[in-house]
What we know:
The structure holds 2 protein chains of 2 kinds.
Chain A: H1 10-48, E1 53-62, H2 65-68, H3 76-79, H4 84-101, H5 111-117, H6 120-132, E2 140-146, H7 149-155, H8 161-166, H9 172-184, E3 187-191, H10 194-197, H11 212-243, H12 248-260, H13 265-279, H14 287-311, H15 315-323, H16 328-357, H17 360-364, H18 385-393, H19 399-429
Helix pairs in contact in A: 1-19, 4-5, 4-6, 11-14, 11-16, 11-18, 13-14, 14-16, 15-16, 16-19, 18-19
Chain B: H1 3-28, H2 40-65, H3 74-95, H4 102-142, H5 145-150, E1 154-155, E2 163-164, H6 167-198, H7 201-216, H8 219-239, H9 251-276, H10 279-287, H11 292-321, H12 324-329, H13 347-355, H14 364-398
Helix pairs in contact in B: 1-2, 1-3, 2-3, 2-4, 4-14, 6-9, 6-11, 7-9, 8-9, 9-11, 10-11, 11-14, 13-14
Amino acid sequence: MSSSLFTQDARTTARNAAERRFRACGLAAIVLALAALVWLLISIFSAGAPAFRQAFMTFPVTLDEKALDKEGGRDPAKLSKVTTVSYAKLLALGLKAKAEDLGLETTGMKSKDFAKMISEESAASLRDRVLADPTLIGQTIEFTVLASGRVDGYYKGRVTMKTAVKDKNTSPEQLALADKLRAAGVLDIRFNWGFFTMPDASDKRPEAAGLGIAIVGSFLMMALVLVLSLPIGVAASVYLEEFAPKNRWTDLIEVNISNLAAVPSIVYGILGLSIFINFVGLPQSAPIVGGLVLTLMTLPRIIIPTRAALKAVPPSIRDAALGVGASPLQMVFHHVLPLAMPGILTGMIIGLAQALGESAPLLLIGMVAFVRDFPGGFFDPAAALPVQVYNWTVRGDPGFVERASGAIIVLLIFLLIMNAVAIVLRRRFERRW
Amino acid sequence: MNPGFLLLLLLVLGGLGFAIGRNRALSLAQGDSRRLHSLPDYYGWFTALMTSFPGLVMVAIWMMIVGQKRPDLTVLLGGACLVVAAAGFGFGLSRITPDFRARNATERLIMWLLVGASLIAVLTTIGIFLSLVVETGHFFQLYPAKDFFFSTKWNPQFRGGSDLGIWPLLWGTLYVSAIALLVAVPIGLMSAVYLSEYASSRTRAWVKPAIEILAGIPTIVYGLFALITVGPLLRDWFAQPLGLGDSASSVMTAGLVMGVMVIPFVSSLSDDIINAVPQSLRDGSLAMGATSAETVRKVVLPAALPGIVGAVLLAASRAIGETMIVVMGAGAAAKLSLNPFEAMTTVTVKIVSQLTGDTEFASPETLVAFALGLTLFLFTLGLNVIALVIVRKYREQYE
């Protein structure tokens, strides 16, 4: 055994190597965890970014009186009998005429092929426009349509000339024409505001599907959660933290709350289904039920940080208030609560953010239903952002994967904003004694 | 008359009550608030509570019992509310005299409100438990309990004659959770050790919140990640070349993604627990010439072990109750198989699939979801209670 301090013996070298290995393992674990986070975000963002851009086509459409109002007279009852099929034909004719005007080669294209380049949704919106203003009939108007999901997918790399050969919903000729139309400025790719405002669309129209109803539904539910859980959560925390006597009952309540915070969210869905829907008889897929279920789920998750915020207010504040003659309730409401408010609000916002991203309980209370009409209130059917994502992932058309990822980006941006507000609140107003 | 409108009306009446009560007290004291026992606002609050509170309670009880079933009767409710509000208002007003201890009375009422708010948590638990137990009872009237607990076949049929054995689902749940824990425990624990023992405080300030972002991401995002990225990747690079299957949704997909989701639960709780180990233990070990790694392995981790076990149990309960990742990543086929690249299903997936769509509450195929829910609830509750007890005991040890 060498006895020099400057040369390590074999055992020390081994121990130091073990030390380095251990440390490298720790670093590797952190790198792995962060790499998973980055991979997740990149995968979602790259899949979802195209949802914010959309191919539109603008061309003149002749609203032929013969097709839309054979007898003349513009009788609204008769006009509303004309289905979208007739409008789709007019759109196809318009596109064909535009292509021929521009002198583009359209060999091998039947008028059916032109129709397939246009979203079915656009015929419906043209119909709505004509029904709203029947004087348009007989005129030629500039109309902007959504390109069909396949044409749109072509510009997002989802559809290629090769896949188009086998696809019965498109053809290489259509895509070639789309390229020419794009060069001529008829087809262009723009920011897709409709993604935020339009309702969900049926299985074959991913290009027209939007988050409008889901955003409204989520907003209604969050409003309800905020209005109910803030006062109830604060009241419960104040009682437990400031007034509750230490006995078996309050112990029970405390254990109960910490267990409720860990109950799987889907169990709250079962609760909502059997109590709010079956027992009380509230309507399915309504924001009122979703809001109530999410409130019950969020409450324990708010009570815990609220109690921590109350606990952080030093006892000297309480003693001072009581010392100058405040009653215990005055002490709490005039002094402790205002001082604890930043902490309470932070916990509240984080609880709301969790509730916003929660989907499992909403699946059970019927939020998966297909809803086309914007809800007029808390009792009308609506969708919710995370459930809309789930709905889109089970659809067949690959265009919906892009929509689902796009919806997640919207959801994540909302969450990011909420968490940023919470952090700012904490940084700016939190007081340390 | 819509109940929402009634609530609003009652609040407005309460506001009116506040103004009238306050004015009345002041006028009884000839405008000199020093002659009153309490501050004038308390007389207002007292009248307001007396006016609107009984009505609010009535509306709430009505909503819970009658709900939307009899919209025709809401007129009755509205009338009753107005009568009660008027009576409360009259009573409140009649109590107001300069000597009336309005503050004490108001505070007593408010205290009851606070107690009521904290009882909502208890009511929620009772609600969960009752709804699960009652419907499970219905289920066992229609379907023999023996088959549910001991059959190894899950094959629901809409015309009856289904096999509803829980074992394939339980197996899928445990298999997915085990893979998730195999991913999350080493990564979470090692990152907690690194952060608390090696990292500089600057690294720690950045890395810890970054890892906790993983806990803030909604589970639907993980589900989509499993569906569009991890699933196809595992299928194309592992399952198909190895000849183990060709399904994108598999136990492995769901397990890996769920593992990532659970990392922060393990790491932040272990971090707290490792930090709670007294510094004197570390100093002693280092002073004897142990390296940091040896200190961690032989002193810190054994001392923190009970707490870490608690953290792992909490993570396990989180993994078992997780729904969206398995719905989107694990598949729907109920199977008892060892192949991790095969699609299997879990308790939560089946709760969702049996309760969504057209549900009829008289068939065992629907009601089984409640039995599954009860199983899940008791399972996670048990894990949580054990974990909390362990963590709490452990904390006391070093305090």
